Hints:
Elements (H helix, E strand, L loop, with lengths): L7 H12 L6 H8 L11 E3 L7 E3 L19 E2 H10 L4 H22 L7 E2 L5 H17 L9 E2 L4 E4 L2 E4 L3 H9 L4 E2 L10 H10 L9 E10 L9 E9 L31 E11 L4 H13 L4 E8 L5 E9 L4 H11 L6 E8 L2 E9 L2 E9 L8 E5 L1 H11 L3 H16 L1
Parallel strand pairs: 5-8
Antiparallel strand pairs: 1-2, 3-4, 6-7, 9-10, 11-13, 11-14, 12-13, 15-16, 16-17
Helix pairs in contact: 1-5, 1-7, 2-5, 3-4, 4-5, 4-6, 4-7, 6-7, 8-9, 10-11
Amino acid sequence: EHEHAADAHNTSAFAIKSLTPLTSADEQLFSATKPLPPHDHSHDYEHCNSHDHCHDHGHDHEHGHDHSHGGHSHEHRSLQDVYALIDQSLASDPAKKLAKKVFAIIAVAEAKAHGTSPDLVHFHEVGGLDSIADVLSFAVCIDDLQIDTVYASTLGEGYGEIVCQHGLLPIPVPAVSNIVAAHHLPLQSGRCYGELVTPTGAAMVAALEPKFTTPQGMTIISTGYGAGKRAYEKPSFVRAMLLGPVTGTDTASAPNNTASAPAWGLDLGEIGAAPYGDEIIELKSNIDDTTGELLGALMDKLLAAGAQDVSFRSIFMKKNRPAVELCVLCYEDNVPELTRIILTESSSIGVRFSRQQRLIMKREAGEFASSLGLVKVKRCTLNPALGQHEVIYPEFESIKEIAAQTKLPLKEVEARIKGELYAQQH
């Protein structure tokens, strides 16, 4: 069995080009790959392409030898063969572990694509010495940086088809699709014609287990770029930024004292502290061809899956088409599942995201002994920093249960319970 890997060496070189300006691992990069058999591996990181965006980081690690690369000259290596070569290197144990993880992710994805097991997958281009050296160098850079958390943006994939030894494959190729699905990587297709995300690139991202969110309260320490040599309709770059916490800022002289604010929002100080404030994600989508019954079912599923609130608003779209705007409030951990529900349970083909800050009242559940029976209530308290204010609301579902038990009209039960609550509070 063979794997597909278009330009594997170029893909991993992209990543190293963006990482080397952030590290001091020049010597480690040289020594880590030196024990490998002779290969055509060069770290000459002049970051240029046709978009005239250049960063020259002269970094040559030539391993000279004379051999010819024909149309299919790479040896076919198994996953264990690749592991053995990685073990021969002088990279640190954490770097070796990360490099092996990258190849293991590719092997699992290729095995699924071919209906076999990872141990039976034979790498050709990805298993070449150049690519192994590159993935090792990538791992050495990551290890040298001693990173606590990795953040990543959505993977920007192209569209169309690509020719490989298996024939004509759609983009993204099966291995990339398998990696994206297995590791829940966000992927946006259609940036331009051609393959922008290869199995090696996707595996590198997956191996780092990044957060696909906006880092908060951070400053940029250094930036590196990896520029591709292929000419696409849009610039082809990988950008890496080393971030650190904001320290030593003179907040006294900062306008509006916002120096300590989150990178994306306001510094609300004590009035925004829990339980009187939090961060929420807002998902929105315009829907113009889904029935009211399906929208009602969609709301139920979203709430059951962890949405904090779901609402619909009447709007008019292009060509004066009446539609609804779906708005979902949720916490960050719920975004992937709620997005999946929106896109599969409605006619929506896209979801917009925004991060919101909220000031809220502290909420506590309780019970109130009314003349009609015990009713569940919600006690809401204003942040003391803003003043003294408290409201107690009867839960409507509890009122309905009492109305059913007493066989009294629902509106009469609601009015009586609310009146008794008001009298008790005042």
